[in-house]
Amino acid sequence: MSTWDKQTSSSDEHSFNALPEPSPTTLSAPHWDACKRNQLLAQQCHSCQQFVFPPQPFCPHCVTDTLAWQRSPGKGRIYSFTEIHRPQTPAYSTPYVAAIIELDEGWHMLSNIIDSPATLLSINQRVEVVFIERGASKIPCFRRTL
Fold first, then answer.
1. What is the pLDDT of residues 83-140, one digit of tens each?
2. Which of 40, 53, 100, 118 is geometrically suited to a Cys-Cys bond with 83, CB 3.0 to 4.6 A?
3. Contact yes or no for 77/101 (Cβ under 8 A)
């Protein structure tokens, strides 16, 4: 079992020995609410059509505030990755893989790759989103597409 498959013992447990849960803000709440429904959302600018992630109050590409949430199929490729051997806290099982994923729509997301050791991963390898329960929330992680 990897860190990302672990369940916290209660949704209000926020100690050094518990895995963190998302703390949505007003701006990020649509993303996290969609994750609970196994959907991946990112903002898209109506003016320049660029995707924006993490959530922002305005488009960093053209500086307009015409952003709307769009559903992503959650498919992409590994842009970069590393294998973590030193846990942040005792709650984390190591090793685990942290990766920057380039989604097919062109935006990037920092996440984890599950169900694969780092030795089976490579840059540009295709991946797809999978949602892992974390307390009352779900975390978007990725796995290799076969």
1. 999 998 888 999 999 999 999 999 999 999 999 999 999 999 999 999 999 989 999 9
2. 118
3. yes
The 51-52 sheet, strands edge to edge: 51-52, 40-45, 67-72
Structural domains in the chain plus CATH codes: 3-144 (2.40.50.840)
Predicted TM-score of the model (pTM): 0.86
Tokens of 56: 């922002």
CA distance 78 to 134: 23
